[in-house]
Design a protein that fits this description.
By secondary structure, this protein is an alpha/beta fold. It has 13 helices and twelve strands. The strands form three sheets. It has a six-stranded parallel β-sheet with strand order 9-8-10-11-7-12, with helices on both faces. Helix 4 crosses helix 5. The radius of gyration is 29 Å and the shape is flat. The protein starts with a strand and ends with a helix.
Length: 389
């Protein structure tokens, strides 16, 4: 039971300065819409401070995203703005309070996630999945429930839980690898699979991993560092180290996967856009009984030599509509890493799109004949007539 109450403060609170009546009809929000107030009272001051954020930064972020005015006062908070937007901000704060009460951390990204969740809930034309009470989540022992932060991540988590093989593509910072690792950890903790196999193409060294110093793990550590970071987010460091020692967590370079059958395991291939077509076919056919496979990558960051096809691009084209295979697509607007990262990705995507349009327009434009060709022929004839005999 959520211990908070919501009240419409059209009637002034006795412990506040009285307001003129009626507040709704006299005040106008931006855009000329009637403004309203929504007041929330949280029972636990400590949890309320977690919701508000350090120096009320979460409330300031909520104001910028929704265009409302949020005024905290102890364990009370008042939201002013257009009626629909103010009520939406109230739902966001309720969601964050419930999350804090469940023991989960509340960060700026969680504020964005709660806003996206409320956008789906208030959709005038909901999709088949928009009527859900909240986004999907994965649960691990270290972090507890980790909820999707936008509709794309929500669809991704549902694909991971529903299918044995899932393909995911999209720009950097959308949470593809991080959520895949979290899902893999949850499968191990639930006993669905017995081990985890992590793989990634080593593009810079090609197939010549033997020239790097150290054993197998040390050779591929630089390439798998992002996966290690995600593992440490979802598992205790001592459990990660023990899993690596016992083989419960295995590091397998893509170049060395040929000939294996992976049974009762969750297998993750990261940066799959740098796998060749042949490597991708080889990897896909490693799937054994009782296993799950997740393939993630960003088609806009292919580092393969010119002339080589990306295995991820080809696999998505061939397999995304095959029954039993899940597919998730992220766009530049789904970036959750940092707001500046989202703007950077969108700027690059806009430039690439403009360049493609210009190239296509140039290909459609008819080739015109060289200018001055007739004048050149006339000059040749004139010189021939004037040539001395």
């Amino acid at each position: 039971m959520t211990h908070l109450a919501q009240a419409d403060t059209t009637t002034p609170r006795p412990d506040r300065t009285p307001r003129r009546e009626p507040a709704r009809s006299e005040s106008l929000a931006s855009g000329g819409l009637p403004a309203t107030e929504v007041t929330l009272t949280f029972e636990d001051n400590r949890l309320a401070s977690l919701v508000f954020g350090q120096y009320d930064q979460h409330l300031a972020h909520l104001e910028r995203r929704l265009g409302v005015v949020v005024s905290p006062n102890g364990n009370h908070v008042t939201v002013k703005g257009p009626r629909e937007t103010a009520e939406q901000a109230g739902r966001v704060l309720k969601t964050l309070y419930a999350r804090a009460k469940a023991g989960a951390a509340v960060a700026l990204g969680d504020v964005d996630g709660a806003i996206e969740e409320s956008n789906v809930q208030r959709s005038l034309f909901p999709t088949a999945d928009a009527g859900k009470a909240s986004f999907d989540a994965i649960v691990t022992r270290k972090r507890g429930p980790v909820r999707a932060r936008n509709a794309a991540q929500d669809a991704y988590l549902r694909q991971l839980k529903r299918h044995e093989l899932t393909l995911a593509e999209g720009p950097a910072g959308t949470g593809k690898t991080w959520l895949a690792v979290g899902h893999a950890v949850s499968l191990i903790e639930q006993g669905v699979v017995e081990r985890m196999v992590l793989s990634r193409p080593a593009v810079e060294a090609g197939e010549r991993l033997g020239f790097l110093p150290g054993d197998m793990r040390e050779k591929v550590d630089p390439y798998l560092r992002p996966i290690y970071d995600a593992l440490n987010d979802f598992m205790e460091a001592r459990h990660v180290e023990r899993g690596l020692q016992t083989g419960m967590i295995e590091i397998a370079p893509l170049a060395f996967m040929r000939g294996r059958t992976l049974s009762n395991a969750v297998v993750l291939l990261d940066e799959a856009q740098n796998a060749t077509s042949m490597q991708m076919k080889m990897f896909l056919t490693r799937l054994g009984e009782g296993s799950r496979m997740i393939i993630t990558g960003d088609p806009s960051q292919i580092d393969l030599p010119p002339g080589q096809r990306s295995g991820l691009v080809e696999a998505v084209k061939l397999l995304k509509d095959v029954e039993g295979i899940g597919y998730a697509r992220f766009e530049e607007g789904d970036v959750v890493r940092h707001d500046l990262v989202r703007r950077i990705v969108m700027a690059y995507e806009t430039a690439a799109r403009r360049e493609r349009d210009e190239r296509e327009e140039a290909m459609r434009r008819p080739v015109s004949e060289p200018q001055g060709e007739g004048d050149s022929e006339g000059l040749k004839r004139m010189l021939a007539r004037e040539r001395p005999r």
